[in-house]
């Protein structure tokens, strides 16, 4: 058996496709837990990211006013441009985190679930 034969067999028996996607087979209860929490974390991350982006671009944002008030109470002065940049970076990072969590959550499948159509090698019948 050559190295390429062993690699090919490993890729097809691991539940992954030749394109590098690897599905992880878990019990149904764990699959449901992963699906619920990864979706919840992803949605919260994306929504918070847009709230921070909103605060970065609007001078009248409630979150921006709250952050500015807390910084003033602490005696820290921050320029508006610096605060906008920091809020934008936090927002974009939060959105990216939500996307990564959702993508990783889709790698799991329960025992007995069929593979997706793209992994099964079947062509589509859409004409």
What does this structure look like?
- By secondary structure, the chain is mainly alpha-helical.
- It has a domain at 23-109.
- The protein contains 5 helices and 2 strands, in the order H-E-H-H-H-E-H.
- The chain has helices at 3-13, 28-57, 62-73, 80-105, 117-120, and strands at residues 24-26, 108-110.
- It has a two-stranded parallel sheet with strand order 1-2.
- It starts with a helix and ends in a 7-residue tail after the last helix.
- The model is unreliable at 1-18 (pLDDT under 50).
What keyword list fits this structure?
single chain; elongated; 127 residues; mainly alpha; 65% helix; 2 strands; two-stranded parallel ribbon
Sequence of secondary-structure elements: HEHHHEH
Indicate the radius of gyration in whole angstroms.
22 Å
The secondary structure category is mainly alpha
Helix amount: 55-70%
- The protein's oligomeric status is single chain
Q: How many DSSP helices?
A: 5
- Our estimate of the beta-strand percent is under 5%
Question: What distance lies between the first and last C-alpha atoms, to the nearest angstrom?
Answer: 40 Å
Care to count the β-strands? Answer: 2
What strand order characterises the main sheet?
Answer: 1-2
- Residue-averaged pLDDT: 81
Query: Which spans of ≥5 residues are poorly predicted at pLDDT below 50?
Result: 1-18
**So what's the overall shape?**
elongated
Instruction: Tell me about the largest β-sheet.
Output: 2 strands, parallel
